[in-house]
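User: I'm writing a short report section on ligand binding and want a predicted complex to refer to. Could you take this sequence and heme C and write out the structure as tokens? A short remark afterwards would be nice.
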Amino acid sequence: MLADGLAVYQRDCLACHMADGRGVPGINPGLLGSPWVLGSSDALVGYVLTGGFSPEVLMARFDYLSDTDMAAVLTYCREVFGEGSGAVNVEQVARLRAQLE
Ligand code: HEC
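Assistant: Sure. The structure tokens for the complex follow:
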């Protein structure tokens, strides 16, 4: 799961949030220690699926990621940048995606 998550992170997130999760100051927020990464995993899935819950935010929607890729990349983020704040599972992503649609 973590290796898969790293692969998705490198493909879809690294360009903006950087390999070390520190982001680019003034442009892209860091994920390292971010309250979204540390907090409720449901909220984190919702954030990344919708690109931040609001049409004004700058991040893209990642609703094209499969449930498996989304669970893997967010598990990776929570493990590596979120002090091990807990895995995200595939069923959880599927449930939240259905709720958001
Ligand atoms: C094109 C650049 C870009 C890419 C690619 C990108 N993000 Fe973001 N991300 C942003 C920006 C910009 C924000 C801040 C949005 C805002 O606050 O308006 C953000 C915010 C976030 C936040 C909230 C951080 C905080 O503390 O405010 C999370 C979590 C997040 N991104 C996760 C991801 C994940 C996971 C991926 C890969 C699937 C990803 N992002 C890909 C640019 C990007």
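A remark for your report: Residues 12-13, 15-17, 28-29, 31, 34-37, 44, 47-48, 52, 57-60, 62, 73, 77 surround heme C (CB under 6 Å). The mean pLDDT is 94.
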